[in-house]
């Protein structure tokens, strides 16, 4: 087992996780900031055991909570004299203001979510009862939260700043719901659960856009919901699954058509790459979405690029 993460020895905002003994750590850590949230992916390549020492009060960072979830392999979260032994997609909470450790098996891959205390809309004294307690991730809101955390890196890659803020709000709503459920302080938030499910649906669809046969039925089966519920979730967003798939495919095509002419594939190749098997139908859809046929869009993009390059190569003398 390897002690992988602990809070920093100096106050930072938000606190980013570091290794207990980085000079003896064999693995890697990748972090992602999403508003007030910090998501870290930690991979351990060897089997060791190190425990994080107790830190003095002068080293305590601003109060945050940390949620840990193994995705592959197992880990153990320790705090307040308790141990939570986690299987893949189980969750455990700990408080960064108090000493804690996370131990992981050789080859373990896990995700951690760090967020400020004020983001939890739950009594602090009750939340303290949840630290280093195993939260099973197989069913209910914890399962949705686990799937959402696992999909965050790919979901964030293509989002705007505004969308990232909304995504962070959705994640925090889901965290609040999962913990409230554990405390018995109220039912899970159905809106947060629905948003998390939408993210799972969109993540699956995004990974399979190149499949011309991708359908709402495929997405529903992948996330284990009925086709009727899938339609309900997308209706709540003011769209349908089919429209969302088409819009994402068109956006990928538009992006590929902006490539320099010498490296650009044929328009028909771009269309086929993103699941459009009928070139004429693709051209019509593209024109409806962007106001001109794809070839004209490519030509205008190339002309604009050449003008910019010419202006850079031959600046006007003052």
UniProtKB/TrEMBL annotation:
Domain HTH araC/xylS-type, first and last residues per copy: 199-300
Keywords assigned: DNA-binding, Transcription, Transcription regulation
Any one Pfam family match given in the protein's UniProt record, by short name: AraC_binding_2
Protein name listed in UniProt: Helix-turn-helix domain-containing protein
Coiled-coil positions: none
Gene3D superfamilies, alphabetized: Homeodomain-like
Entries under InterPro entries matching the protein: AraC-bd_2, AraC_XylS_family_regulators, Homeodomain-like_sf, HTH_AraC, Tscrpt_reg_AraC-type_HTH
Domain of life according to the entry: Bacteria
Listed SMART domains: HTH_ARAC
């Amino acid at each position: 087992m390897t002690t992988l993460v602990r809070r920093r020895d100096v106050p930072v905002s938000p606190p980013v996780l570091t290794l207990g003994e980085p000079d003896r750590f064999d693995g890697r850590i990748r972090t992602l900031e999403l508003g007030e949230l910090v998501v870290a992916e930690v991979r351990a390549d060897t089997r060791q055991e190190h425990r994080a020492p107790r830190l003095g009060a002068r080293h305590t960072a601003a109060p945050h909570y940390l949620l840990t979830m193994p995705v592959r392999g197992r880990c153990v979260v320790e705090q307040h004299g308790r141990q939570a032994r986690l299987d893949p997609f189980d969750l455990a909470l700990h408080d960064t203001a108090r000493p804690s450790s996370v131990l992981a098996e050789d080859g373990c891959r896990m995700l951690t979510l760090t967020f400020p205390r004020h983001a939890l809309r739950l009594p602090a004294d009750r939340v303290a009862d949840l630290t280093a307690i195993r939260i099973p991730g197989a069913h209910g809101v914890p399962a949705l939260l686990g799937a959402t955390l696992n999909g965050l890196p790919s979901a964030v890659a293509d989002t705007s700043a505004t969308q990232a803020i909304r995504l962070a709000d959705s994640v925090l709503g889901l965290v609040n719901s999962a913990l409230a459920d554990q405390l018995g302080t109220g039912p899970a938030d159905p809106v947060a659960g629905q948003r998390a499910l939408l993210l799972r649906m969109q993540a699956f669809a995004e990974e399979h856009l190149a499949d011309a046969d991708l359908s709402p039925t495929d997405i529903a089966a992948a996330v284990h919901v009925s086709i009727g519920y899938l339609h309900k979730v997308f209706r709540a967003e003011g769209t349908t699954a089919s429209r969302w798939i088409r819009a994402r495919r068109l956006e990928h095509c538009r992006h590929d058509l902006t490539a320099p002419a010498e490296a650009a594939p044929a328009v028909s190749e771009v269309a086929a790459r993103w699941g459009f098997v009928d070139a004429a139908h693709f051209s019509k859809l593209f024109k409806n979405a962007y106001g001109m046929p794809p070839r004209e869009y490519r030509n205008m993009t190339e002309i604009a690029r050449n003008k910019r390059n010419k202006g850079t190569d031959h600046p006007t003398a003052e």
